[in-house]
Design goal:
The chain has about 230 residues and is of the alpha/beta class. Helices cover about 45% and strands about 15% of the residues.
Length: about 230
């Protein structure tokens, strides 16, 4: 069983599917690969894809209605992905719906060339406000060293990696992040799905990690750590 805490399933909200049928195909793929809990996390900065909370609520209601009849044991929750490119991200000050779970966690992505100083200052600001930053796709930030990632984790950030990265990257980079997984530095693996086939990659990544790191570690990364962090995310 998997917990998909980072995906772009809602249609017409961001760069996920463009139509209801695309959204339903995605949720079917998610369900049949073994996902039973989903937090939908559209990009929530209005500058990206013209995000609107009203639109999010409408499409989320459509998705939950569909799942109630088709997949009654699938739990769906509402979240967002915050693009943090300034020191105090606009959507937080504008009271946009950026928070997940108990209102104390935020899925956060940065510009790929963000440095440790910028990221650590933002993490510290959020932690001081009682908010836990869940850092999306840590593999994208090439200026962050392993020691930087450990330092962010010590500050209180949750470190996540995208499943697709494992299937697409070269041997040496994959080996590097596998070491971070085996050393307990990576907390969770995300689908970051934007299309139905991303869930095939997600379950391939689980199988790969079962082989390389053992089933217990793979289960922690794909379900248990998210369940512990988010609890009941409603
Ligand atoms: Fe994402």
């Amino acid at each position: 069983m998997f917990f998909d805490f980072h995906c772009h399933i809602l249609y017409g909200v961001d760069d996920g599917p463009a139509s209801p049928s695309g959204m339903f195909e995605m949720v079917k793929s998610a369900y049949f690969c073994g996902i039973r809990k989903i937090i939908v996390t559209p990009h929530c900065n209005p500058q990206l894809f013209g995000f609107s909370p009203e639109r999010l609520n409408e499409v989320y209601a459509e998705l939950t209605e569909y799942c109630k009849s088709k997949f009654p044991d699938l739990e769906i929750y509402k979240g967002a992905e915050l693009f943090a490119y300034t020191r105090f991200p606009g959507p937080i000050s504008e009271n946009l719906p950026v928070f997940i779970a108990d209102g104390k966690k935020v899925l956060t992505e940065f510009l790929p060339d963000s440095d440790f100083r910028f990221v650590s200052e933002l993490v510290t600001t959020l932690i001081s406000a009682g908010i836990t930053p869940v850092i999306a796709h840590i593999e994208r930030y090439r200026l962050l060293s392993k020691n930087n990632v450990i330092a962010l984790k010590k500050l209180g950030a949750v470190i996540t990696l995208n499943a697709s990265f494992f299937c697409k990257t070269g041997f040496f980079r994959r080996a590097k992040f596998l070491r971070l997984i085996n050393e307990g530095i990576i907390d969770m693996v995300a689908s970051d799905a934007h299309r139905p086939e991303d869930y095939g990659i997600y379950s391939d990544c689980y199988d790969f990690l079962v082989k390389k790191s053992g089933r217990q570690k793979a289960d922690q990364l794909f379900y248990m750590n998210a369940a512990r962090l988010f609890g009941d995310p409603s």
